[in-house]
Amino acid sequence: MSVPAARKPVVVSVARARRMWLHAQRLDAHAPFGDGPQATRAAVEHLGYVQIDTIHVVERCHHQILYTRIPDYRREHLHQAQTIDKSVFECWTHALAYAPTRDLRVHLGAMRRNWQGNSGWFGSVTRADLRRVLARIRTDGALSIRDIDDEALVDKHHPWASRKPSKRALECAFFKGVVTVSERRGMLKTYELIERHFGWDRSPRLAPEREILAHRLDAALRAQGLVSLDSICHLDARRKPAMRRLIEARLRRGELRPVVVDGAEKVPHWALPQVLEAQVDGPGEQVHILSPFDPLVIQRRRLQLLFGHEYRFEAYVPKEKRVFGYFAQPVLAGDEIVALIDLKADRERRRLLVPQWTWLIRRGRRAVKPHIEAALHRFERFQFNSAGGTQ
Question: Is the pTM of this model over 0.85?
Fold first, then answer.
Protein backbone atom coordinates (compact mmCIF):
# COMPACT_ATOMS: atom_id res chain seq x y z
CA MET A 1 0.00 0.00 0.00
CA SER A 2 1.49 3.32 -1.08
CA VAL A 3 2.01 6.20 1.35
CA PRO A 4 -0.08 9.31 0.52
CA ALA A 5 2.11 12.03 -1.00
CA ALA A 6 1.29 14.40 1.86
CA ARG A 7 2.67 11.87 4.36
CA LYS A 8 5.88 11.08 2.48
CA PRO A 9 8.85 12.80 4.14
CA VAL A 10 10.42 15.64 2.22
CA VAL A 11 14.21 15.33 2.29
CA VAL A 12 16.09 18.62 2.69
CA SER A 13 19.79 19.27 2.98
CA VAL A 14 21.28 20.70 6.15
CA ALA A 15 22.10 23.87 4.20
CA ARG A 16 18.47 24.33 3.18
CA ALA A 17 17.20 23.57 6.68
CA ARG A 18 19.62 26.15 8.05
CA ARG A 19 18.43 28.79 5.58
CA MET A 20 14.80 28.03 6.39
CA TRP A 21 15.55 28.69 10.06
CA LEU A 22 17.47 31.89 9.32
CA HIS A 23 14.62 33.15 7.15
CA ALA A 24 12.05 32.34 9.83
CA GLN A 25 14.20 34.19 12.37
CA ARG A 26 14.47 37.13 9.94
CA LEU A 27 18.27 37.05 10.08
CA ASP A 28 18.67 36.88 6.31
CA ALA A 29 17.52 40.42 5.46
CA HIS A 30 18.24 44.01 6.43
CA ALA A 31 15.56 45.62 8.64
CA PRO A 32 12.93 42.91 8.07
CA PHE A 33 10.52 44.55 10.53
CA GLY A 34 10.94 48.11 9.28
CA ASP A 35 11.98 50.90 11.62
CA GLY A 36 10.62 53.06 14.40
CA PRO A 37 8.79 51.98 17.57
CA GLN A 38 6.29 49.77 15.72
CA ALA A 39 9.12 47.54 14.50
CA THR A 40 9.61 46.35 18.09
CA ARG A 41 6.03 45.18 18.35
CA ALA A 42 6.27 43.46 14.95
CA ALA A 43 9.49 41.67 15.92
CA VAL A 44 8.18 40.39 19.25
CA GLU A 45 4.94 39.22 17.61
CA HIS A 46 6.83 37.34 14.92
CA LEU A 47 9.47 35.78 17.17
CA GLY A 48 6.88 34.93 19.82
CA TYR A 49 9.13 35.95 22.70
CA VAL A 50 12.32 37.88 23.48
CA GLN A 51 14.25 36.57 26.46
CA ILE A 52 15.25 38.77 29.42
CA ASP A 53 18.40 38.09 31.43
CA THR A 54 20.27 39.86 34.20
CA ILE A 55 23.79 39.65 32.70
CA HIS A 56 24.96 43.13 31.72
CA VAL A 57 28.53 42.56 30.49
CA VAL A 58 27.44 44.16 27.22
CA GLU A 59 23.97 45.28 26.16
CA ARG A 60 21.18 43.41 27.93
CA CYS A 61 20.08 40.47 25.84
CA HIS A 62 16.51 41.64 25.15
CA HIS A 63 17.82 44.87 23.62
CA GLN A 64 20.52 43.04 21.65
CA ILE A 65 18.06 40.48 20.24
CA LEU A 66 15.84 43.29 18.96
CA TYR A 67 18.77 45.37 17.66
CA THR A 68 20.01 42.34 15.70
CA ARG A 69 16.80 42.43 13.66
CA ILE A 70 16.00 46.17 13.82
CA PRO A 71 19.08 48.22 12.88
CA ASP A 72 17.62 51.53 14.14
CA TYR A 73 16.27 50.03 17.36
CA ARG A 74 16.41 52.18 20.51
CA ARG A 75 15.81 51.10 24.09
CA GLU A 76 12.93 53.54 24.43
CA HIS A 77 11.09 51.63 21.70
CA LEU A 78 10.73 48.62 24.01
CA HIS A 79 9.74 50.90 26.88
CA GLN A 80 7.04 52.40 24.66
CA ALA A 81 5.76 48.97 23.63
CA GLN A 82 5.57 47.75 27.25
CA THR A 83 4.52 50.82 29.21
CA ILE A 84 2.72 53.13 26.75
CA ASP A 85 1.35 51.08 23.86
CA LYS A 86 1.09 47.95 26.04
CA SER A 87 1.57 45.77 22.97
CA VAL A 88 4.09 43.55 24.78
CA PHE A 89 4.19 42.27 28.34
CA GLU A 90 6.49 40.25 30.57
CA CYS A 91 5.79 36.61 31.22
CA TRP A 92 7.53 33.29 31.77
CA THR A 93 8.11 31.10 28.71
CA HIS A 94 11.13 28.83 29.24
CA ALA A 95 12.60 31.89 31.00
CA LEU A 96 11.55 35.44 31.76
CA ALA A 97 10.66 37.11 28.48
CA TYR A 98 8.73 39.76 26.61
CA ALA A 99 5.79 38.34 24.66
CA PRO A 100 3.02 39.86 22.50
CA THR A 101 0.03 41.09 24.47
CA ARG A 102 -2.17 39.44 21.85
CA ASP A 103 -0.95 36.09 23.27
CA LEU A 104 -1.55 37.03 26.90
CA ARG A 105 -4.30 34.47 27.53
CA VAL A 106 -2.00 31.66 26.44
CA HIS A 107 0.98 32.76 28.50
CA LEU A 108 -1.00 33.52 31.64
CA GLY A 109 -2.58 30.08 31.46
CA ALA A 110 0.86 28.46 31.16
CA MET A 111 2.28 30.67 33.95
CA ARG A 112 -0.57 29.74 36.28
CA ARG A 113 0.21 26.08 35.74
CA ASN A 114 3.92 26.73 36.27
CA TRP A 115 3.13 28.55 39.51
CA GLN A 116 1.17 25.56 40.76
CA GLY A 117 4.21 23.38 40.01
CA ASN A 118 6.65 25.67 41.85
CA SER A 119 5.19 25.53 45.33
CA GLY A 120 8.70 25.11 46.74
CA TRP A 121 9.75 28.56 45.52
CA PHE A 122 6.54 30.31 46.57
CA GLY A 123 5.70 28.08 49.54
CA SER A 124 6.76 30.76 52.02
CA VAL A 125 4.29 33.29 50.59
CA THR A 126 1.10 33.32 52.66
CA ARG A 127 -2.31 34.61 51.66
CA ALA A 128 -1.76 37.44 54.13
CA ASP A 129 1.48 38.38 52.33
CA LEU A 130 -0.37 38.53 49.01
CA ARG A 131 -3.27 40.53 50.41
CA ARG A 132 -0.88 43.03 51.99
CA VAL A 133 1.15 43.74 48.86
CA LEU A 134 -1.92 43.83 46.59
CA ALA A 135 -3.71 46.22 48.95
CA ARG A 136 -0.71 48.53 48.80
CA ILE A 137 -0.72 48.55 44.99
CA ARG A 138 -4.48 49.04 44.93
CA THR A 139 -4.21 52.04 47.25
CA ASP A 140 -0.89 53.65 46.32
CA GLY A 141 -0.60 52.66 42.67
CA ALA A 142 2.13 50.77 40.82
CA LEU A 143 5.23 50.07 42.87
CA SER A 144 8.70 48.54 42.69
CA ILE A 145 10.51 46.65 45.40
CA ARG A 146 12.45 49.86 46.16
CA ASP A 147 9.19 51.55 47.14
CA ILE A 148 8.78 49.07 49.98
CA ASP A 149 11.07 50.31 52.74
CA ASP A 150 9.09 49.59 55.88
CA GLU A 151 9.47 45.84 56.37
CA ALA A 152 11.94 43.77 58.35
CA LEU A 153 14.71 42.27 56.23
CA VAL A 154 15.39 38.53 56.21
CA ASP A 155 18.41 36.45 55.26
CA LYS A 156 18.74 35.53 51.59
CA HIS A 157 18.27 31.81 50.95
CA HIS A 158 19.30 32.04 47.29
CA PRO A 159 21.76 34.28 45.37
CA TRP A 160 18.90 35.69 43.26
CA ALA A 161 16.56 36.23 46.19
CA SER A 162 15.85 39.50 48.00
CA ARG A 163 16.06 40.30 51.68
CA LYS A 164 12.62 41.89 51.38
CA PRO A 165 9.82 39.32 51.86
CA SER A 166 7.51 41.40 49.67
CA LYS A 167 9.61 40.63 46.59
CA ARG A 168 8.57 37.00 46.64
CA ALA A 169 4.95 37.99 47.22
CA LEU A 170 5.12 40.28 44.16
CA GLU A 171 6.65 37.48 42.09
CA CYS A 172 3.96 35.09 43.23
CA ALA A 173 1.24 37.59 42.24
CA PHE A 174 3.00 37.98 38.89
CA PHE A 175 2.97 34.23 38.18
CA LYS A 176 -0.67 34.02 39.23
CA GLY A 177 -1.54 36.75 36.72
CA VAL A 178 -2.80 39.17 39.36
CA VAL A 179 -0.14 41.83 38.68
CA THR A 180 1.99 42.59 35.64
CA VAL A 181 5.23 44.45 35.09
CA SER A 182 4.08 47.88 33.94
CA GLU A 183 7.57 49.32 33.53
CA ARG A 184 11.17 48.15 33.65
CA ARG A 185 14.30 50.22 34.33
CA GLY A 186 17.26 47.92 33.92
CA MET A 187 16.31 44.98 36.14
CA LEU A 188 14.09 47.09 38.43
CA LYS A 189 10.47 46.15 37.79
CA THR A 190 7.38 48.19 38.61
CA TYR A 191 4.30 46.08 39.29
CA GLU A 192 0.70 47.12 38.64
CA LEU A 193 -2.63 45.34 38.96
CA ILE A 194 -3.07 43.62 35.61
CA GLU A 195 -6.64 44.88 35.08
CA ARG A 196 -5.63 48.45 35.81
CA HIS A 197 -2.54 48.31 33.57
CA PHE A 198 -4.48 47.07 30.55
CA GLY A 199 -7.68 48.98 31.36
CA TRP A 200 -9.84 45.86 31.70
CA ASP A 201 -13.03 45.54 33.69
CA ARG A 202 -11.97 41.97 34.39
CA SER A 203 -9.12 39.69 33.37
CA PRO A 204 -9.64 37.55 30.26
CA ARG A 205 -10.26 33.85 30.63
CA LEU A 206 -7.10 31.79 30.71
CA ALA A 207 -6.41 29.67 27.64
CA PRO A 208 -7.15 25.96 28.03
CA GLU A 209 -4.36 23.45 27.48
CA ARG A 210 -5.43 22.61 23.92
CA GLU A 211 -5.13 26.29 22.96
CA ILE A 212 -1.72 26.53 24.62
CA LEU A 213 -0.50 23.52 22.62
CA ALA A 214 -1.81 24.92 19.32
CA HIS A 215 -0.19 28.26 20.06
CA ARG A 216 3.18 26.64 20.85
CA LEU A 217 3.13 24.74 17.58
CA ASP A 218 2.03 27.71 15.47
CA ALA A 219 4.60 30.01 17.09
CA ALA A 220 7.40 27.50 16.48
CA LEU A 221 6.41 27.02 12.84
CA ARG A 222 6.39 30.79 12.33
CA ALA A 223 9.72 31.54 14.04
CA GLN A 224 11.65 28.34 13.22
CA GLY A 225 10.40 27.36 9.77
CA LEU A 226 11.35 23.74 10.34
CA VAL A 227 10.40 22.26 13.71
CA SER A 228 11.14 19.20 15.82
CA LEU A 229 9.50 18.03 19.02
CA ASP A 230 12.46 19.37 21.01
CA SER A 231 12.39 22.76 19.30
CA ILE A 232 8.65 23.19 19.89
CA CYS A 233 8.75 22.03 23.52
CA HIS A 234 12.04 23.64 24.52
CA LEU A 235 12.55 22.93 28.25
CA ASP A 236 8.94 21.75 28.45
CA ALA A 237 9.22 17.98 28.10
CA ARG A 238 5.93 17.23 29.84
CA ARG A 239 3.99 18.64 26.87
CA LYS A 240 5.74 16.44 24.30
CA PRO A 241 3.21 13.55 24.25
CA ALA A 242 0.26 15.91 23.70
CA MET A 243 2.23 17.91 21.14
CA ARG A 244 3.04 14.72 19.25
CA ARG A 245 -0.70 13.94 19.06
CA LEU A 246 -1.45 17.44 17.76
CA ILE A 247 1.24 17.09 15.09
CA GLU A 248 -0.16 13.73 14.00
CA ALA A 249 -3.64 15.25 13.68
CA ARG A 250 -2.32 18.05 11.50
CA LEU A 251 -0.38 15.56 9.38
CA ARG A 252 -3.57 13.59 8.75
CA ARG A 253 -5.31 16.78 7.61
CA GLY A 254 -2.42 17.68 5.32
CA GLU A 255 -1.64 20.85 7.28
CA LEU A 256 1.94 19.73 7.96
CA ARG A 257 4.52 17.76 6.01
CA PRO A 258 7.09 15.40 7.55
CA VAL A 259 10.67 16.41 6.82
CA VAL A 260 13.94 14.52 6.96
CA VAL A 261 17.10 16.58 7.28
CA ASP A 262 19.83 14.86 5.32
CA GLY A 263 22.37 13.47 7.77
CA ALA A 264 20.02 13.89 10.75
CA GLU A 265 17.43 11.26 9.92
CA LYS A 266 16.93 10.22 13.54
CA VAL A 267 15.34 13.56 14.46
CA PRO A 268 11.83 13.91 12.95
CA HIS A 269 11.00 17.37 11.63
CA TRP A 270 7.89 19.01 10.23
CA ALA A 271 7.07 22.12 8.23
CA LEU A 272 4.14 23.87 6.61
CA PRO A 273 3.62 22.82 2.97
CA GLN A 274 3.88 26.43 1.76
CA VAL A 275 7.21 26.86 3.56
CA LEU A 276 8.65 23.82 1.82
CA GLU A 277 7.42 25.08 -1.55
CA ALA A 278 8.88 28.56 -1.09
CA GLN A 279 12.23 29.50 -2.54
CA VAL A 280 14.58 30.65 0.22
CA ASP A 281 17.48 32.72 -1.05
CA GLY A 282 20.84 32.77 0.64
CA PRO A 283 21.37 35.40 3.35
CA GLY A 284 24.08 37.20 1.38
CA GLU A 285 26.71 39.04 3.41
CA GLN A 286 24.62 39.79 6.49
CA VAL A 287 26.75 39.68 9.66
CA HIS A 288 25.20 39.49 13.12
CA ILE A 289 26.76 39.41 16.58
CA LEU A 290 24.34 37.10 18.40
CA SER A 291 23.46 37.21 22.07
CA PRO A 292 23.89 33.86 23.86
CA PHE A 293 20.15 34.19 24.60
CA ASP A 294 19.12 34.83 21.00
CA PRO A 295 16.41 32.41 19.79
CA LEU A 296 18.89 31.10 17.23
CA VAL A 297 21.45 30.24 19.90
CA ILE A 298 19.44 29.29 22.99
CA GLN A 299 18.48 25.85 21.64
CA ARG A 300 21.94 24.31 21.73
CA ARG A 301 21.10 20.91 20.19
CA ARG A 302 19.31 22.49 17.26
CA LEU A 303 22.21 24.88 16.71
CA GLN A 304 24.66 21.98 16.62
CA LEU A 305 22.41 19.94 14.33
CA LEU A 306 21.91 22.66 11.71
CA PHE A 307 25.09 24.75 12.08
CA GLY A 308 27.56 22.11 13.25
CA HIS A 309 28.55 24.25 16.22
CA GLU A 310 28.34 23.11 19.84
CA TYR A 311 27.97 26.45 21.62
CA ARG A 312 29.39 26.63 25.13
CA PHE A 313 28.12 29.38 27.46
CA GLU A 314 30.91 30.00 29.95
CA ALA A 315 29.63 32.81 32.18
CA TYR A 316 29.12 30.30 34.99
CA VAL A 317 32.27 28.29 34.23
CA PRO A 318 35.30 28.89 36.51
CA LYS A 319 37.74 31.26 34.81
CA GLU A 320 40.53 28.69 34.60
CA LYS A 321 38.24 26.29 32.72
CA ARG A 322 36.92 28.72 30.11
CA VAL A 323 37.85 28.10 26.51
CA PHE A 324 36.13 30.92 24.62
CA GLY A 325 35.60 33.59 27.28
CA TYR A 326 33.10 34.76 29.89
CA PHE A 327 30.52 36.12 27.43
CA ALA A 328 31.55 34.75 24.03
CA GLN A 329 29.01 35.61 21.34
CA PRO A 330 28.52 33.63 18.13
CA VAL A 331 29.17 35.57 14.92
CA LEU A 332 26.77 34.73 12.10
CA ALA A 333 28.14 35.57 8.65
CA GLY A 334 25.71 34.65 5.91
CA ASP A 335 24.50 31.19 6.87
CA GLU A 336 27.56 30.14 8.83
CA ILE A 337 28.77 30.70 12.39
CA VAL A 338 32.34 31.75 11.73
CA ALA A 339 33.67 32.92 15.08
CA LEU A 340 33.07 33.36 18.80
CA ILE A 341 33.92 36.80 20.16
CA ASP A 342 34.11 37.45 23.88
CA LEU A 343 32.84 41.00 24.45
CA LYS A 344 32.89 43.40 27.36
CA ALA A 345 31.59 46.96 27.61
CA ASP A 346 33.94 49.58 29.02
CA ARG A 347 31.20 51.99 30.07
CA GLU A 348 33.56 54.58 31.51
CA ARG A 349 35.45 55.02 28.22
CA ARG A 350 32.38 54.10 26.12
CA ARG A 351 34.17 51.38 24.23
CA LEU A 352 33.43 47.79 23.33
CA LEU A 353 36.33 45.55 24.29
CA VAL A 354 37.26 42.21 22.71
CA PRO A 355 39.12 40.10 25.31
CA GLN A 356 39.14 37.08 23.00
CA TRP A 357 38.39 36.30 19.34
CA THR A 358 38.14 32.62 18.36
CA TRP A 359 37.78 31.63 14.71
CA LEU A 360 35.62 28.62 13.89
CA ILE A 361 36.54 28.55 10.20
CA ARG A 362 39.88 28.00 8.49
CA ARG A 363 39.15 29.46 5.09
CA GLY A 364 37.74 32.88 4.29
CA ARG A 365 38.87 34.64 7.47
CA ARG A 366 40.53 37.53 5.66
CA ALA A 367 37.45 38.19 3.53
CA VAL A 368 34.91 38.13 6.37
CA LYS A 369 36.94 39.90 9.07
CA PRO A 370 36.24 43.48 7.82
CA HIS A 371 32.49 42.73 7.83
CA ILE A 372 32.71 41.45 11.41
CA GLU A 373 34.68 44.50 12.50
CA ALA A 374 32.07 46.76 10.91
CA ALA A 375 29.31 44.88 12.76
CA LEU A 376 31.22 45.29 16.04
CA HIS A 377 31.55 49.06 15.46
CA ARG A 378 27.80 49.30 14.75
CA PHE A 379 27.06 47.37 17.93
CA GLU A 380 29.38 49.65 19.90
CA ARG A 381 27.61 52.76 18.55
CA PHE A 382 24.22 51.29 19.37
CA GLN A 383 25.22 50.39 22.90
CA PHE A 384 26.75 53.73 23.84
CA ASN A 385 24.83 56.18 21.65
CA SER A 386 21.60 55.02 23.27
CA ALA A 387 23.09 54.68 26.74
CA GLY A 388 20.89 57.43 28.12
CA GLY A 389 17.70 55.54 27.32
CA THR A 390 15.76 53.04 29.35
CA GLN A 391 17.99 50.14 30.37
Answer: yes
